[in-house]
């Protein structure tokens, strides 16, 4: 036998020893018939785990227990009642739950909202026809985890708690960007049709001249962001559903903030576009630079004029007014003073000069939007002096927030029960992409000479 053959044989023997050792560990001397058959038939450890769990279910006695199983209200559903009870326990509002479960189910759930986790496990086992023993041990927990009802109820509760947290988190990007649906994770072309040519007088013979539509394209691409979390044996024994629910709450906040993080990261990088120019560039007529671009009444008026003078591909004005003044937190109060003050007090020589008693900028209908991301040094291109004008995304393309096939919120899913982990795993994921679409709907002011 040559060296290669000897090495292969040794490797095969090692793998077989490891397989047998794993089988013996799983069976633990309690299931000799399964152990013998598994070793002789070449079963994998995963198959052995499944067989042991099936045997556990079949052998577990259906002895009476101290935990009573509640009957669902007339016309109701016990699983939904348990879901509603757990949602109420972790702070999901009754009004919100009534939309999903109905008033009677939520009312029934209120009487069970203090139910301990171990009783929830027992209720779910009964619902799925799994016998419940007197003791509350590791085997009981494993059996409950292998049920259909418990993982389903907990994932739905986690989903609602995450959604509540996600919707409560303010997101600036959704004010400034349009939304779109993408069908896959490939880089997608996002086409927009731009009309070219004005309406012309109709000739005496009634002929209407042909106009045209010019197709412009931008890009967007989705990525998936996610994490997993676990309901552990310790949480169940301690009846600590609150600790478990802190994770989806935090993930809901993170998912909402992710939209802003992707948007501001892209905005501040000022990426190069298909025409070879940066998104904000003098050639795009959307960049105000130099020392005079620091936020003031005069620079804001110049930026507004730059925005109003923007033209479409055929050289005609886009005829859209700026709607949002986006500033870093350092400029928030100055921006509010400039856009909402009744009178502007301007510096002039040694004395303050009061202009006419009307602040014309207050009539521009600009909403001040402030974000800490603009000045956060962790982001490339961040500045405490730069500021922006954005149009209403319902009127003009700026950036697009892309979602996968209309799914606008993160998703919570339950994972498979792991025999080696005494816990129930869940995962959260969010399919999302943010890209610029058209430079014409935005103006940037550098805010400094640099």
What is shown here, in short?
This protein is α+β, with helices and mostly antiparallel strands. It has helices at residues 3-27, 32-41, 45-59, 78-89, 94-101, 103-110, 117-127, 138-145, 149-168, 173-176, 233-237, 241-269, 297-308, 332-340; strands spanning 178-182, 188-196, 212-220, 223-232, 287-288, 322-328, 345-348, 351-354, 367-371, 387-391, 399-404, 411-414, 423-436, 442-445. The chain folds into three domains: 22-55, no CATH class; 78-147, no CATH class; 223-445, no CATH class.
Labels describing this entry:
450 residues; alpha+beta; five-stranded mixed beta sheet; 14 strands; 39% helix
Explain this structure to me?
The strands form four sheets. Strands 1, 4, 11, 12 and 13 form a five-stranded mixed β-sheet that branches. The protein has 450 residues and is α+β, with helices and mostly antiparallel strands. A hairpin with a 2-residue loop joins strand 7 and strand 8 (351-354). It has helices at 3-27, 32-41, 45-59, 78-89, 94-101, 103-110, 117-127, 138-145, 149-168, 173-176, 233-237, 241-269, 297-308, 332-340; strands at residues 178-182, 188-196, 212-220, 223-232, 287-288, 322-328, 345-348, 351-354, 367-371, 387-391, 399-404, 411-414, 423-436, 442-445.
Low-pLDDT sequence parts:
60-76
> Average pLDDT across residues?
83
Largest sheet: 5 strands, mixed
* Class of secondary structure makeup: alpha+beta
Domains (count): 3
> What is the helix fraction of residues, given as a range?
25-40%
Number of strands: 14
Oligomer: single chain
Order of helices and strands: HHHHHHHHHHEEEEHHEHEHEEEEEEEE
Q: Compute the separation of the termini in Å.
A: 75 Å
Strand content: 15-25%
Overall 3D shape: elongated
Radius of gyration: 32 Å
The number of helical runs is 14
């Amino acid at each position: 036998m040559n060296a290669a053959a000897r090495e292969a044989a040794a490797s095969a023997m090692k793998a077989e020893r490891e397989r047998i050792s794993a089988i013996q560990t799983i069976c633990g001397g309690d299931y000799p018939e399964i152990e013998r058959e598994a070793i002789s038939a070449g079963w994998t450890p995963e198959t052995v785990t499944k067989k042991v769990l099936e045997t556990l279910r079949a052998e577990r006695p259906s002895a009476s227990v101290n935990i009573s199983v509640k009957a669902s209200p007339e016309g109701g559903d016990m699983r939904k009642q348990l879901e509603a009870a757990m949602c109420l326990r972790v702070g999901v509002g009754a009004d919100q739950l009534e939309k999903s479960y109905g008033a009677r189910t939520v009312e029934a759930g209120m009487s069970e909202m203090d139910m301990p986790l171990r009783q929830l496990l027992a209720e779910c086992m009964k619902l799925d026809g799994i016998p419940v023993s007197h003791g509350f041990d590791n085997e009981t927990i494993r059996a409950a985890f292998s049920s259909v009802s418990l993982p389903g109820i907990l994932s739905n509760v986690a989903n609602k708690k995450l959604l509540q947290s996600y919707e409560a988190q303010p997101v600036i990007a959704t004010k400034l960007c349009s939304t779109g649906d993408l069908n896959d994770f490939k880089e997608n072309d996002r086409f927009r049709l731009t009309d070219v040519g004005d309406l012309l007088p109709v000739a005496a013979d009634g002929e209407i001249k042909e106009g045209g539509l010019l197709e412009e394209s931008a890009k967007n691409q989705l990525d998936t962001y996610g994490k997993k979390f676990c309901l552990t044996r310790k949480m169940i024994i301690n009846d600590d559903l609150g600790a478990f629910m802190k994770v989806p709450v935090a993930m809901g906040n993170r998912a909402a903030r992710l939209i802003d993080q992707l948007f501001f990261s892209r905005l501040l990088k000022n990426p190069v576009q298909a025409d070879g120019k940066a998104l904000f560039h003098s050639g795009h007529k959307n960049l105000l630079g130099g020392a005079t671009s620091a936020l003031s009444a005069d620079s804001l008026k110049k930026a507004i004029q730059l925005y109003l003078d923007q033209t479409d591909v055929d050289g005609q004005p886009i005829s859209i007014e700026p709607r949002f003044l986006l500033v870093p937190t350092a400029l928030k109060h100055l921006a509010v003073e400039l856009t909402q003050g009744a009178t502007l007090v301007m510096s002039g020589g040694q004395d303050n000069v009061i202009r006419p008693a009307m602040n014309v900028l207050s009539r521009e209908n600009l909403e001040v939007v402030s974000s800490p991301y603009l000045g956060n040094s962790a982001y490339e291109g961040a500045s405490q002096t730069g500021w922006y004008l954005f149009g209403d995304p319902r009127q003009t393309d700026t950036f697009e927030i892309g979602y996968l096939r209309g799914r606008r919120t993160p998703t919570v899913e339950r994972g498979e029960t792991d025999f080696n982990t005494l816990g129930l795993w869940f995962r959260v994921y969010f399919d999302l992409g943010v890209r610029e679409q058209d430079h014409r709907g935005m103006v940037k002011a550098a805010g400094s000479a640099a």
